[in-house]
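Q: Sequence in, structure out?
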Amino acid sequence: VRWVDRTGQPRDLYVDLLRQENSLTIPLRDSGGFGNRKCTSRYKIEVVARELKRLGATPEDPAEVAIGISVDEIERAAPGVSRQQPWTCKTYPLLDLGLKLSDCISIVADAGLPSVPRSACSFCPFQGQEEWQRQRRERPALFARNVELDAVMRERHLRLRGDPAGLASPTLTLDQAVSDQLSFGDCDSGWCMT
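A: Exactly. Output:
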């Protein structure tokens, strides 16, 4: 997500990750799971909240922010007015309708619409192996850019925390962790041995 900081300079998470020498803003896969996660708050939630405030939302007349959390992940929902952004009020229409992710996928398909990708950065460490493999096959330039980011973040995590971490693996670089072997059919995991 691109936005402009207080000095008027355009910003995005990728550029900020390269600039911030002593920061680990995104979660990395390390030996204990995932590390720090400031990216969602800083580059999604706060950006939307600032824009809503700029457009006139107030604590007395808050903007309604509809969040697409389904019943499969109900534990992520935190309804009501945010203490950090009292000019916003969160609602959850998919929960109100009792919809699971599979229901949403069916509704989109039944309407003849293309499938909707997950809302995530191209370098998000929460991606699965299939998503990384698809990116490597279908968007090689983007994958190469993310290999460079992985190298920067690996070095930084080792320097700041003293242990290995990366976008897809704590021990393997991104290009080592994501197979370049093409799979056939629907088998992106490699388990089908094709």
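The chain has seven helices and eight strands.
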